[in-house]
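re the bet — no i am not wrong, look at it urself. input seq straight from the record:
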Amino acid sequence: MYTARLDTLLGYDKSLHSTHTPTPSDVDSGSRLKVLVIDDDDITREMLCDLLRGQGHDVHELSSAIGASRAISDLSIEAVVLDVMMPSINGDKLARLLRGATRGQSLAIVLISSCPLNELRTLADAARADAVVSKSDARTTLGSALLKAYRKRQLVRASSR
């Protein structure tokens, strides 16, 4: 029977990729974000956190949506990466709740999932998330999607002043 490690399926096995992974020196100091990663799968969450830390971000993590609002407030989180499929509350529903909160208007929200990208985009539009990332492409696209989402929120904040 053939088995594959989840991190390999998610594109985390470095031996399978020749793509350059951004390092802290690739991220300018103005792009170092306080990020909260929420994913119920330990291996996926660890991979996402390692990836973002490797890009110079200050990363915090939760295994469920429980405590997300408090962590965002207490840690002055600027961006959230949310898994869509979680047992207690789906990431798109949590994104809607966060966006509706006072501080939610300035929070960059990235939805991540292994569901088809067109479905993910539809969920993100309904939840008013700023970006989407396919788990299979996370290694190569999460960093840039996160920065794009953050910059989008900065523009929203600036235009509402």
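see?? Residues 1-29 have pLDDT under 50 and may be disordered. told u. also The first strand starts at residue 34 and ends at 38. so pay up
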